[in-house]
Amino acid sequence: MVKRIFIYIILALGFCFGANALQSDSVRVSLVTIYPGSEIYELYGHTELRVQDEHGDYFFNYGLFDFNAPGFVYRFVKGETDYLCGAIPATYALSGYDGRRVVEQQLNLSQTQAQQVRDLLVENARPENATYRYKFVSDNCATRPRDIIERALGDSLTYHPAASAKLTYRDMMHNYNGNYAWSRFGIDLALGCDLDTAITYRQQMFAPVVLEKALAKATVKRANGSVVPLVGTTEVLVDGSEEGLVAPPTPWYATPLFVALVLLALSLVLTVRDCRHHKVNRWFDTLVFAAYALWGCVIFFLVLVSTHECTSPNYNALWLHPAYLLLAVLPWVAKARKVLTALHIINFIWLTASAVLLATGVLSQELLLSFYVLMAVPMVRSFNYLYIHRLCNHEVAK
Questions:
Q1: What is the pTM of this model?
Q2: How far apart are CA 248 and CA 252, in angstroms?
Q3: pLDDT tens-digit map of 45-87
Q4: Which helix (H) or strand (E) holds 228?
Q5: Angstrom distance (rounded) from CA 367 to CA 257
Q6: SS3 for 334?
Q7: Which residues pair with 233 in a beta bridge?
């Protein structure tokens, strides 16, 4: 409730600011870039637009949200991520960014252009307009300020991209979460092949630091035909590393790859033991396949229900799906042995084909090595079942 009241106060301030600021004759507009922090929601940095005139000094922030709103977590996973735009007084705007580099770029705009940017921001910050549907790569705290600047400048704005190798959204995300193994694991698991499509220079500006560097090189054509840099002056408001406030790398023994290797090793050890004793460890299979089915439900929810960007298609659904639940339950049903055998045959062939198609690039989606290791676990257990009950023709342990 406190957070919600605070947000509404900010929106009210933005509304009041708008009522006064429209009377101003001198306006300065700056892009403010907050570099990445160490928390999961800070990894990509943040962007705000600062507006100064004789009536006030405000930072327009498109990254506000009410975590206490009803069903926030479910709606966030589903893709119904409603964020808010608010005008925050400069006195409070930089609080909480200690240790994170904050850079202000004053934009070289004409008064007409600066006033148009301000008016668009004021209109966005009004309570009836403040809410927008956040999308993490196409409509976020960086793309909204960029779009407003572009709208005010029109064709007079020119970007100057440097010649470089083509990047994908996944490439850029990996760059920011390189030290956060579990964050990278979760993103690569939840987001599908659309994340691996080459993106344009403008699309790369979904990342605040990239937007900052793009505007530093951009130019504006004046009415008299002269061309000037978009950024007039640059000032560091809060000193900090240009790499951001990055946490140390995840220790090797706590990475998803190490955990996956431990699970595979345990699976292999139990498989060897099962083959020697001609008995299938049903408890292990039930736990493993139930866990895979649970995560499969999450993946299928993201693919079929969620409206988040890049969640569908997702080829991780080939090896992580709810059908594993049958392999978890049927070992305990005596009359289902033939069905279970058929399912293990299908599972082994399916996983083998999926691994080959993904590894060779026939299905174009980048997978972490840990995914292939995890894929091998149900393959090994299906092989184990088939070896014991089909090739060796032994009874399942009672």
A1: 0.89
A2: 12
A3: 999 999 999 889 999 999 998 767 677 667 777 888 889 999 9
A4: strand 227-229
A5: 12
A6: helix
A7: 106
